[in-house]
Design goal:
Blueprint lengths: L1 E7 L5 H13 L3 E7 L1 H10 L4 H5 L4 E3 L17 E7 L1 H9 L5 H11 L4 E5 L6 H13 L2 E2 L13 H15 L13
Parallel strand pairs: 1-2, 1-4, 2-3, 4-5, 5-6
Helix pairs in contact: 1-7, 4-5, 4-6
The structure holds flavin mononucleotide.
The site of flavin mononucleotide (FMN) has 16 residues, from helix 2 and helix 4.
Length: 186
């Protein structure tokens, strides 16, 4: 059984988090722990046809964003990997500085200190030097910075094709295999 944390924050691209929740739900032997930030509630409403409650119903366990005593806030709770998709600059910066006052940044900090896989789908553009410095710091701490940049070699015909391909590659990073999109050479 793989225990995975999925956090959805308030950067544009809520669809990446929603799709990740759907794929994790369909993955055998995966237990998904979901945290949705308050800003993500707003972007989900703005950008998606699915409601937050329905997204939460896809997870095995839902944690309140402010519950800093949740299971996933402790390194003694065994977790296979964590994905923050999409990841706002605010949350990325909190993680980069160890500012772990909410559950998402605390759980991410735990992943780093325990040397476990952490994938941050940071979405902002353009990027200033402070953003880039935070990203470099995070990579040095062991995180994977995964901006959801579309690929075109698989000839996406719909937005969902672009989202699926990026989410598949994010989940590859934490060892959850899915065939949500075509793979080059396969
Ligand atoms: C519609 C909408 C789109 C946003 N897009 C982005 C974005 O792409 N990247 C980003 O870093 N912040 C974006 N924000 C701002 C974040 O939501 C804001 O910084 C928030 O405090 C992030 O909090 P969180 O990390 O706890 O979710 C957006 C906000 C809204 C309302």
């Amino acid at each position: 059984m793989k225990r995975i944390i999925l956090a959805i924050t308030g950067a544009s691209g809520a669809a990446y988090g929603v799709r990740a929740a759907q794929i994790l739900k369909a993955s055998p032997d995966v237990e998904t722990h979901l945290v949705v930030s308050p800003a993500a509630r707003r972007t989900i409403a703005q950008e998606c046809d699915i409601g937050v409650k329905e997204v939460e119903s896809l997870a095995d366990v839902v944690h309140h964003h402010a519950d800093i005593g949740a299971s996933i806030s402790s390194g003694s709770f065994r977790v296979h990997g964590m994905v923050v998709a999409p990841c706002s600059v605010k949350t990325m910066s909190n993680i980069a500085t160890g500012n772990s006052g909410d559950l998402i940044s605390r759980a991410a900090d735990v992943m780093l200190k325990e040397r476990r896989p952490l994938v941050l789908a940071v979405r902002e553009t353009p990027l200033h030097a402070g953003h880039l410095e935070s990203m470099l710091k995070l990579v040095r701490l062991g995180a994977v910075i995964f901006p959801p940049v579309p690929a075109f070699y698989h000839r996406p015909g719909a937005i969902s094709d672009i989202v699926d391909q990026s989410v598949m590659r994010m989940l590859d990073q934490i060892g959850v295999e899915t065939d949500a999109a075509a793979r080059w050479g396969e």
